[in-house]
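Q&A log
Question type: sequence-to-structure
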Amino acid sequence: MKLYHTTLKQVQDLELIETSEGLMYVSFLSEEDLLKNGYKKVIEEAIPEHTEQGKKLVMKTEETSTSYRIFYAFEELSSEEKAEQALMEVQGQIEEVEGYIRHAILIGNDRVLLELREEYKTLLAQKQALDKEE
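Response status: OK
Response body:
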């Protein structure tokens, strides 16, 4: 069971703890007994699916008098993070088009190769513009 050690300020995965009465299984101890021995139960919420564009998923914690809660929240990306994300997306598209160009050269498909080269040039221009913004 996950417990928060109040002295060490860390989450630990424990089955047994040492009490004044000896070793005890944490699953049989009440919240009051855990608190007496320097522990709090950890309440961990499920990680939500990250689908919100322009936001990042951040893990947060909250300590109450009887528990330690781990939860997740969405926060707006900073302008630097947005620029970095856009640059990474363009870089991914460039790598994808490079693979298509290699394949078109390998199979000798000149008609598609011209379109791919134009797309490649456009992506490189986008990357260059994003690099200048930073």
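Response note: Helices lie at 31-36, 79-107, 110-133.
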